[in-house]
Every structure is written in structure tokens, then in C-alpha cells.
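Hi Q.,

Before the meeting this afternoon, I wanted you to have the adenosine-5'-triphosphate prediction in hand. No need to reply - just skim if you have a minute. The sequence and ligand are here:
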Amino acid sequence: MTLWSASDLRTATGGVGGADASGVSIDTRTLAPGDLFVALVGESDGHRYVADALARGAACAMVHAEVPGLGDDARLLRVADTLKGLADLGRFARGRFGGKVAAITGSVGKTTAKAMLARILAAHGTTHAAVASYNNHWGLPLTLARMAPDAAYAVVEIGMNHAGEVAPLAHLARPHVALITSIAPVHIGYLGSLEAIADEKGSIFSGLGPGGVAIIPAEAPHARRLRAAAGGHQVLTFGSGAEADAVLLASGSDAGGVRLRARVLGVEIETDLAAPGAHMAMNAVAAMLAAGALGIAPRDAAAALCGFAPVRGRGERRVLRARGGEALLLDESYNASAPSVRAALAVLALQKATRRVAVLGDMLELGEAGPEEHLSLVPDIARDADRLHACGRLMRLVYDAVPERLRGAWAEDSDALAPQVAADLRAGDAVLVKGSLGSRMARIVAALEEAAA
Ligand SMILES: Nc1ncnc2c1ncn2[C@@H]1O[C@H](COP(=O)(O)OP(=O)(O)OP(=O)(O)O)[C@@H](O)[C@H]1O
Ligand SMILES: [Mg+2]
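Predicted structure with the ligand bound:
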């Protein structure tokens, strides 16, 4: 089915050429036949992959430079700048979209809340949602560019590393509902202070149109600044205090999930998630409130959330075969910040296991706050884990500070640590693997899975 007609591609971008396309891709490894391939220039130059994309069946390729070796009849959409061209597609796609848009930002929990909200909305109408964490200057426009004009809902994620990144993305998305999941010292190395982080997240509300709704975590640091950032828009809050519009009344986790009771827009609901932890319960409350702001009854939202399981790399549970039995892997290799490591350790503590093993890699992008943020985890590790393997220079501080009985292996990086973690695996272990993406903890997950195979 045509998502982009050649003429819409030209109108949106002011470009020349083009052909009807059924999807949009920026990566030949995941390109589907019929896609428009956008040659972005990043760490590598997408123009190098144009011939490959066309050979794989791309409908056409958006380019801003000459691509040597292509025939005169190559299917190209020529623009001045492909990154701007992608943003133009996003803007055009948003403009023609007839459904409701929800945008989510926050220090932690964006992708999880996005998946929860998308699950609720999908029970009521066709729902388009961002892939993975596509939340930056190319991820958000790509998400919008892929949106079918006639879907009922779209849920997008907006992220940031540096000040000033959220507002332009919010203006592109023009959400009906904008949700901030949490405010915490994540990426503080770039932003400098928690206040600056709150202001940056709050700028998502500048993208709201008339009638837009701002959703705020009531108990977050600087919640007042967030409220101010919402300006004249309606503000709804979620939290544990009775005054919030969505209140988490009670939650109880076991190893496999959490049962929660909440009051959302005056309606009491209960539901069970297949993801343990009070943080998951709070994300669910936020997602139900956002759904409520889009007109979905809290009872329907709660029913749709029942059975929700974590997203890959963010708490996914897998059984490993170990010598003489089985072990449990909690794969949190996708990312890490102090609040999310704390939440994951609390989940590790819930596991019925002979040993609760934490395998932690550095949390990155913390700047001067790095050592303190890392050391703040020591009491949690001592309480929730029986054993710590660690890698990276910041985790070295933690490794040296935990009680000696916990100390397993430490190594410079995850490559060096992986074989030691795999060799230490015992039947009955529950193993949590967590670190920033840049710490490459997925290698440890892979080593454990290889050892178990
Ligand atoms: N409310 C929360 N409080 C603490 N930790 C959370 C919360 N929600 C999710 N997490 C944990 O934080 C980690 C990241 O979750 P998620 O991917 O949903 O966040 P994100 O904001 O999308 O991250 P990114 O900035 O990498 O896109 C996971 O380990 C997840 O379990
Ligand atoms: Mg994300």
C-alpha cells in the first residue's frame, strides 16, 4: 500500500524525482522492498548504501549528494539535505494525520510507558508507535514519516542528551497529550543540574496545541517547574499522593509481575502486569492517565494492560540452562541510570534463587556526578544481591565499596568480564545484567546464553 506518493514526497521536501513508497527506512539491513530509503549522514554516510538499497527493492532513495556508479535512471529523490528532508516528511505526515498523538518524554521509563500506552490504544483503534527508542533528531521524524494517515492513534517518544533538543521535536510531533514519566539525574553530564533537566523535559509542553493535555509526575523533583512549563494547558498528575489525578493506591510484586490498584480520574481499577516492580506499576498508572486524557475509560485501559511484559533488554526474563539445572537471566542490558538500576535490583531481590547475581556496567553520560551516582547504588546492591560482577572504571568504585562477601569479578570492560560471568553461572542463580548501552553489557548476555546452549 502506498504510504508516500511521489508527489507527496516532492511537496513535503521540495525535492525532485521520487517514486511511490510503502514505507520509510534509513538502514539497508532492515529495509523492506517498497521503502523509501533516506541516505542520512551520521557516523557513516548513507549515500554509500544507496545502490544496495535500490538493489534490495527500495522504491527510491532520498539523497543530497552524488552517488557514483548509479545509472541515469536510478530512482532518486534529490533534496538539499536528507536530515532536513526526513524532518520535512515527519512534519507533512503529522499534518495529514487524522488521529490523536501522544508524546512521551522523561528521564526513565519512556519506552516502557510508550509500549503500555500503545497497548491500551491498540485495543481501541489502529495505533502507530515508535520502534525501540526512536526518540531523537532522526528517530522522531522517522516515526512520524512512517505513520499511516488514517491510524487512530500514534505514540511517539522524545528523548534528549543536550539542552534544546526536546522543544523542536515536540513542535514536529504536535501531541494532543504530552507525558513526562520522571525527572532524574540521567544525562546530567550534559545538562548540568536537575533543574535544567526538568526545564528541558518541560519544554515538551510547548508542542501542545489548543486543548492539549500536559501530564506530570506529581512527586518528581521540580514538579512545579513542569507545571509552569505547561502554561495555560490542562495539567493532569500521577503519583502516590491522594491529590494526583491518577494515584497508585497499592502494588505488590512477586518474581514474575506486579498486581496494582489505582484510582485513575476518579475510577478505581486493578490489573496485573507480567513485569515486576513498583516502577512498572507507576508507569502503568501514567499510561492509563494518558489514555484517559485521550478518552479511554480507565477500566478498559486496565484490562488492556493486564499481562504486559517488559520490552527487550529492559527487564526481559529468560531461562538459562546451567550445570545441573536452570538459572534465570534478567536482561537489562539496554540501558542504565541510578533509578533504573535501583528498580532492577529490587526486582532481582524478589527472585527465588540460590544466589542473586548482579552484573553491572558503567552508567554513562553522568559527567561530574558519575562517582556519586554510582556509589549511591552500594546500599541497594548490599541489600538486594548476593554477588556482584562489575566492569568499567566507575563500577570499580562500587566494586571496592560493597561488602567483601559480595565481590565476584571486576574487569576493565564487558568483553573481559563476560567469560568470568559465564564461568561463574550456577543452577539456581538469578542473574541481572545491566549497564548503559555504551558499556555493551549485551556481550555478557550473549556469553551467558552461549554457555547455556
Ligand atoms: N519509572 C521508572 N523508574 C525507574 N526505572 C524505570 C522506570 N521505568 C522503567 N525503568 C527502567 O529503566 C530502564 C529504561 O527503561 P525504558 O527503556 O522504558 O526508558 P527510556 O526512558 O525509554 O530509556 P532511553 O532514554 O534509553 O530511551 C529499564 O531498565 C526499565 O526497567
Ligand atoms: Mg527509550
